[in-house]
Amino acid sequence: MASDRLNLFDFNQGKIRTLHLTWMAFFVSFMVWFAHAPLMPFIREALALNDQQVKVLLILNVAITIPARILVGMLVDRYGPRILYTGILILGGAISILFALAQDYQQLALLRFLSGFVGAGFVVGIRMISEWFPARQTGIAQGIYGGWGNFGSAGAAMLLPFVAANVGGDDGWRYAIIGTGLLSIAFGVLFYWRARNTPKGSTYFKPKKMGAMEVTSGGDLILYMLMNIPMFLALGVLTWKLSPAKMGLLSDVASYAIYLTLIVVYLVQVWKIWHVNAHVLKEPVPQMQRYKFKQVAILDLAYLVTFGTELAVVSMLALFYVDMFGLDKVWAGVLAGIYPVINLVARPAGGMFSDRIGRRRTLIIVFIGIALSFLLLSRVDSGWPVWLVVGATILGGIFSKAGSGAVYAMVPLIQRRMTGQIAGMAGAYGNVGGVVFLTVNSFVETQMFFLVIGATAMVVLFFILLFLEEPQGQMVETLPDGTVQMIDVS
Amino acid sequence: MEMGSHLAVTLGQCSDAGIKPHNEDFHSAFIPEDSLLVSKGIAIAIADGVSGSDGGREASQLSVRMFLDDYYGTPDSWSVKHAVSKVMTALNRWLYSQGQQRYEHAKGMVTTFSALVLKSQTAHLFHIGDSRIYRLREGELEQLTRDHRIWINNDREYLSRALGIDVNLDIDYRSTPVRSGDLYLLTTDGVHDFVADSELSSLFEIHMQDPQQAAEAIVETAKQAHSRDNITCQVVRIDSLADADKNEYYAQLTRLPFPPDLNAGHIIDGYKILRELNASSRSQVYLAEDTRASGPRKVVLKTPSVNFEDDPNYLELFLHEEWVAKRLNSPHLIKVCNEDRQRTFLYTVVEYIEGQTLKQWMADNPRPGIAQVRATIDQIARGLRAMHRMEMYHQDLKPDNILIDNNNTLRIIDFGSTRIAGLAEIKTPVEHVHILGTANYSAPEFFRGEQGGNRSDIYSLGVIAYEMLTGKLPYGEISVERAARKRFLYTPARQHNPLVPEWIDAALEKAVQPLPQKRYTLLSEFVTDLSKPNQRLLQKATQPLLERNPVAFWQVVALLELAAIIMLIVSAFR
To answer: How far is CA B161 from CA B158, B185, B192, B418, in A?
Structure first.
């Protein structure tokens, strides 16, 4: 019979099969998404790219993920997770094969930009897991899904440089990436064949719409509108980076067209938020449904740091090892691969600490850790022993991933019925973080890049200390004879 | 189901024999309190015993009294329309037979009858004969009923319809939204044949504040106008509407806290958890022992999932489930353990049935005999019928929701999606979710966003019968996401199982028709057609197109004709 513990080897249970399929789909999608990072030293060499071109490629990879997450969130309402994950994997696989065949920088850039939408797969799995698992198991199931799936970038980092170095000579990186593309397409087909949207025979209730989020006071309405700006700003900064003023990858006309589109889309978004929420100004929302949007805002910022760091560091780490310490390309890939591996333990641990010692306290500790480890890294120079540098990045990785776990442990406690939307917004902010940090990376030296991460972590730490409230849970006690009683906390 | 503010009215009534020796008119009203006010509303009735009949006076009195008594005795799951039509049909039969027995002819006990039921934010009007119901809104007086009169010549008219004339009853029904400040006026012909509408309006202008004074003034005016009949009128002013107050409504829903995760050994309210039976993303189901019962007694405890802690729709459905089960009594429906114990958490308790689900049974018995299938469907139909009699529609009938105990008795469980007509009429501050049931067993109308009824349950039952016989589904696996665009093409059961007789296949096809109006109207028809061949159904399958679908036939003819004309024109121009 079912219990608190998940038996991950009980393949007779539909939900266990689904969990494995889903985290593997996420794993593959992450592998495809980050296949380029460990191979960057190879690609740079093969196509004779300069430093700026490489850094822009890294940013492009995470840019489209921001709007894609929103789009995928809406599509999943309509078409269900099964068809959507299949679609993302097959399309993502196809794009990455095209990327592998690219002959010049323009093609590379465009295809890397397009492949960013693979990163939106995360949202799909979250919906799938919540349909299949009872409430008491969703935390652990989402943890396994997120943690093991994220491991995909480690898989790519450790495996692909070997393939690239040993197969096909100069074109080795192409074979490696084509390999991930084929794997992705194959897994997409497998997913469609084996996965189902809901448990067989379960009553279907229309899932809640993922449109604009509901807020519950006038002040929160304004805050919500403001909190949407950074997502568009990040894309704006990227456009500026690509415009004639900097890289010249986009023409003047194209970049102005993009600015205009971003403004229009933002206004549409504001209008939608207004449309959904205007009523809060007229009549107060019932007590039961009230929540504080500042909690969401702080979690967004926290995830901007924790997941943004992860995306940015994973993207640049292999190159950093090669450039700063002259490491061998394969060896650099393996060392860089350690960083995402940390996820396996650190992310669930962050969730666990959050359960045990309190949400707010965990976040405070984690952010102190992030700030200190990245401030340490900002002092790095080529004279440091490699083990110390690797150690410092691992330390930073542990804290930032534990932070991601802690953020998602708190998300469902803000307002249950909006968990999906709050999770989606935090996820988008994670990507904003990726874009911001990688953009910074493209302007400054690596030490400065680490310093910016450390400083941002400190700023967010202040917000947490000043504004974040510990969510109130209901208190229940069990008497010695087993009787369960409520304790009134109010 | 407490609401923010209650429906409140002020009533004025007055009746006078006028120039006649007896008053054959009768009127009465009932304004209940608390839960009955919410579930049944306020009822006002007026009747005018027909002078030509011997028992007119008795007929008017009895009809009004019995109507009020019986209406408030109907189940609170019934809609107003259903409840009143049941009551009126019985009343009419009774009047008719009494009239026949006592006075030995059909005109024995005959009366007009007009009733107004105000429930939540709607006025329901029932009307037969030539009494009237008016509404005064914003100074405008409107007659809401139509007189059932036949004009013979200028000065003689007869009632064309009345209560007690015939065994068959044809009563007018109409519903209309109520507004605060509305005034409703019920009159007999002693009033409205002698007082013009304009006069009534001006009387109301004077006596707006006091319906009783208004009623008396109207009767007085009719007298002054030399009314030749009994004079009766009722005036109802709507003072406030049942307004759904969000805060109070939510407070009601969240009165009890959600239980925490329960493990074996935990006790809540005397129920000791033995083990978890099932846990889904929507609820947890535990097997428990009632430690307060005299002997060992096992029950099933269902607790809501914290995923929906702040979802009023979910909470409402969860509370409905027990409400439904409490009101049903059939050996084929699961029973709720309805005990008077103070609950400290939100959960439902139903009897524990040892046995298996129909789904499991089907897996174990892939090719049951026709007789076995028939017996199974018959039992489920009995359970469903008990629900339909209460105007409740299960809406999520599937093999997982049917339990077979060790004596082979079937029980329908899980009323979590049940639609209750009487409750649907009560306005609540939350919009109701659309439940789609379980895709493979849900009637197609749900996917089109339409409302279900008894025919939707018949559809589900048809699918179950089909699946029992063939192990397949009549329209294959249906995915929820694509169901709305699916073309429903019936695969004959005989294609999967050649042992299924043609006549059973025909009955199955009719039960699972994609369009509800083409399905069986009643469960019993389906059950009957499963036990003996229905010749008409069989003939239909082999009828020519002209009879089966005349429209299509003539469309084809017209099309051919058009083609011929075009060809002729074209050839003429060559």
So the answer is: 9, 21, 18, 38
Task: Identify which of B307, B345, B436 has the shortest CB distance to residue A135.
Answer: B307
Query: Are the beta carbons of B359 and A201 separated by less than 8 Å?
Result: yes
> What is each CA distance from A49 to A195, B66, B262, B281, in whole angstroms?
42, 94, 60, 50
What is the C-alpha separation between A45 and A168, in angstroms, rounded? 15
Cα(B287)–Cα(B278) distance, rounded to whole angstroms? Answer: 9
Supply the DSSP symbol for B158. Answer: E
Closest CA to B466 of B503, B504, B437: B504
Nearest to A30 by CA among A88, A71, A83, A81: A88
Q: Which of A440, A219, A140 is nearest to A313 (CA)?
A: A440
Cross-chain Cβ contact A132/B247 below 8 Å: no
Single pTM value for the model: 0.78
pLDDT at A1: 36
- Please say whether the dihedral angle defined by the alpha carbons of residues B169, B172, B174 and B178, taken in this order, is positive or negative: negative
- For B161-217, the pLDDT digits (tens) are 999 888 888 999 999 999 989 999 999 999 999 999 999 998 888 888 899 999 999
Helices (H), B237-282: 246-253
Residue of A319, A339, A314, A299 whose CA lies nearest to A427: A299
Residues B536-542, mean pLDDT to the nearest whole number: 72
A476 contacts on B by Cβ (under 8 Å): 260
Q: What is the pLDDT of residue A177?
A: 94
Which residue intervals of A283-358 are DSSP H helices? Answer: 293-325, 329-341, 343-357
Q: What share of chain A in percent tops pLDDT 70?
A: 95
Which structure tokens are listed for A377?
């890294």
The whole-number pLDDT of residue B68 equals: 95
pLDDT(B3) > 50: no
CA distance B20 to B231: 10
Q: Residues near B224 by Cβ (< 8 Å), separated by ≥ 6?
A: none
Contacts of A203 in chain B (CB under 8 A): 282, 396, 416-417, 435-438
Structure tokens given for A233: 């700003």
Q: Which amino acid is at B102?
A: R
* Complex ipTM over 0.85: no
Largest interatomic CA distance in chain A: 75
Widest CA span of chain B, in angstroms?
99
| Structure-block tokens of residue A338 | 């350690």
Contact A168, A179 (CB under 8 A): no
Residue B320 near residue B305, CB atoms below 8 Å: no
Distance of CA B410 to the CA centre of its chain: 25
Among B250, B306, B433, beta carbon nearest to A205: B433
Q: Can you tell me whether residue B189 is helix, strand or coil?
A: helix
Residue tagged 């650190």 (tokens)? A346
Find the CB nearest B480 among A130, A135, A204: A204
DSSP codes joined into one string, B299-319:
EEEEEE-GGGTT-HHHHHHHH
**Cα–Cα distance between A37 and A50 in angstroms, integer?**
15
Interface residues on A facing B, Cβ-Cβ cutoff 8 A:
1-4, 78-80, 83, 130-138, 197-199, 201-206, 283, 286-289, 415-417, 419, 474, 476, 478, 481-486
End-to-end distance of chain A based on CA atoms, in angstroms? 36
Please judge whether B281 and A131 are an interchain contact, meaning their C-beta atoms are less than 8 angstroms apart.
Answer: yes
For chain B, the straight-line distance linking the first and the last C-alpha, in angstroms and rounded, comes to: 79
What tens digit of pLDDT does each residue of B410-426 get?
Answer: 999 988 888 888 887 77
Coil vs helix vs strand at A104: coil
Q: Do A134 and B434 touch (CB under 8 A)?
A: no
Q: How many Cα atoms sit within 13 Å of B125 on the Cβ side?
A: 20
Please check the confidence at residue B82 and state whether its pLDDT lies above 80: yes
- Contact between A189 and A86 (Cβ < 8 Å): yes
Residue A20 has pLDDT above 80, yes or no: yes
Tokens of B243: 């307004």
